[in-house]
Amino acid sequence: MATSLILTTLDTSERLSQNERTACRIIDGKAVVITIDENQVHVLNPVGTRVWQLADGRSLEAIIDQVVAEFEVERDQAALDVCRFAAELVAVGAARVSGRGGSATVPAER
Amino acid sequence: VGIGWRWTESGGQVLTRFGHARIEHARGRFSARLAVAAHPRSAHFLLSGVSAAVLHRLGGGILHAASVELESAALAFIGPSGAGKSTACQQVEGCPLFSADTLAVVPAPLAAAPGQPPLWFAHPLPGGTRPVPDMPAAASRWLPLRGILRVERTSEEVRVATPSLAAAVALARESAFQMGVGVGAEEELLSRLENLARSVPVGRLHLRLGTSIKPLLSRWLLGQAPESPWQPR
């Protein structure tokens, strides 16, 4: 399967917020998220749903801490996955980041 | 054409480019007063808006769906244009076409067995073109909604996959008419579609051209029938 590397340049000090122009419903532990302006429907898995719920303006660092506390995952892996997922949320218009600090580059496979 | 509507304590209001309507809901009956412009399609647009507003009041909505009548119930096929909804209808051998393009769906809580989620009923709506003119047509009436299938084409084995409830709601949302505006209207629609997906089986139909799917769908529907929590003594 062909893969390509994309670079997400989210710093863990950046704050992640749900876009106000989204509608969401949690169904059996999975979030169904609609981006109003794009009219796209997204279904998140349970971990993605938790990250989504935590995206209330807190930093990615704080979200990673919470994910590590709640799930069986190493911190490095959690940081990689959360940053990658946050970048995807931003890319589809479901979330936004603010308060960017220094930049760190996280390689992500797609 | 934009159609807007809202319900307040005093009743419903529907507004389109070509007219407006006021709806009253009392003692289980709806009545409406309509004012339309002298435009060939003004009445159609306004009545569509009135239909949507009334269905909303009843807890239902409108699906972009072609459907057939199977065993005295409606079986709906959803998906974007070109997905194969009409083709799927033709491949349910011997079943008449119920809706060509749009389907009204409403819950009927009192029609369910005790302890069961409400039954949902479906009625074909006018509009759209009739893409399968040689198919026999079912009588236009309310039928129990037996299942909803998102059509996806395949060149491999014909099959039905059952998605998670969240994925089922997402599939239904893609084919649901949204006439409200904004985040609140979207969240309300998701709530309704969750109610729908909790009551009516939703599947992904992997459809291969030219293959009869009636036996497959009958088996799938049989496997989706809920068991009653009440057991006979």
If you had to describe this structure to a student in words, what would you say it looks like?
Chain A has 110 residues and is an alpha+beta fold. Chain A has helices spanning 46-54, 60-70, 75-91; strands spanning 5-8, 15-18, 22-27, 30-35, 40-43, 56-59, 95-98, 106-109. In chain A, the strands form three sheets. Chain A has a three-stranded antiparallel β-sheet with strand order 6-2-7. Chain A is globular. Chain B is an alpha+beta fold and 233 residues long. In chain B, helix 3 (165-174) crosses helix 4. The longest helix of chain B is centred in the last third of the chain and has 17 residues, at 183-199. Chains A and B meet through strand 3, strand 4 and strand 5 of A and helix 3 and helix 4 of B.
Layout of strands and helices, then pairs:
The complex is a heterodimer of chains A (110) and B (233).
Chain A: E1 5-8, E2 15-18, E3 22-27, E4 30-35, E5 40-43, H1 46-54, E6 56-59, H2 60-70, H3 75-91, E7 95-98, E8 106-109
Antiparallel strand pairs in A: 1-8, 2-6, 2-7, 3-4, 4-5
Chain B: E1 3-8, E2 11-16, E3 19-26, E4 29-36, H1 42-57, E5 61-70, E6 73-78, H2 85-90, E7 97-99, E8 102-108, E9 119-125, E10 143-153, E11 159-161, H3 165-174, H4 183-199, E12 202-207, H5 214-224
Parallel strand pairs in B: 6-10, 10-12
Antiparallel strand pairs in B: 1-2, 2-3, 3-4, 5-6, 5-7, 5-8, 8-9, 9-10, 11-12
Helix pairs in contact in B: 3-4
Q: Concise description?
A:
The complex is a heterodimer of chains A (110) and B (233). Chain A is an alpha+beta fold.
